Amino acid sequence: MSSNFEIEVVNQPAALAPAMEELSRWLEGRQVDPAAVYLAQLALEELVTNCIKFAYDDEAEHLIQLKIEITPGGMTLVVEDDGHPFNPLEQAEPDRNMPIEDRPIGGMGLHLLRNLSDRMEYAWKGGRNRVTLHKKAMA
After folding, report:
1. Are 81 and 7 a contacting pair, CB within 8 Å?
2. Which domains does the chain have, with CATH numbers?
3. DSSP-assigned letters across all residues of 66-133
4. Is the entire prediction scored with pTM above 0.90?
5. Cβ of 129: how many Cβ atoms within 10 Å?
6. pLDDT tens digits for 106-124?
7. In which band, very low, low, confident or very high, does the pLDDT at 32 lie, cut at 50, 70 and 90?
8. 8, 40, 13: which is closest to 24 by C-alpha?
């Protein structure tokens, strides 16, 4: 049996906290592995924040979609937006050997998403970015 969650987040910083609260409430109502819960919350925060900050050149309202499907086999999470094309898989890994005070800002959130998910995919289709994260169920 699968369980689905969908939310649209307006591209405004103030919209992030209520979306996170709604996601957290939904996840609490299911028996979801803590690693998958963390990944879902991190994906919402990281990918939606990146969209809000960098995806749009205009002041118009845009909707960023988050969809989650939980099955006995694990979780699939999709974030979709109509911003500038941005493939997170093409972003360089941060240099974790560099002293933290010398590191450029940014990149660690995407690094965590790539490493915490079992598989991460990107597609640009129909003028939309689509990032898909997969997390297998923990045995």
Report:
1. no
2. 3-136 (3.30.565.10)
3. EEEEEETTEEEEEEEE-SS---GGGSPPP-TTS-GGGSPSS-HHHHHHHHHSSEEEEEEETTEEEEEE
4. no
5. 23
6. 557 788 899 899 999 999 9
7. confident
8. 40
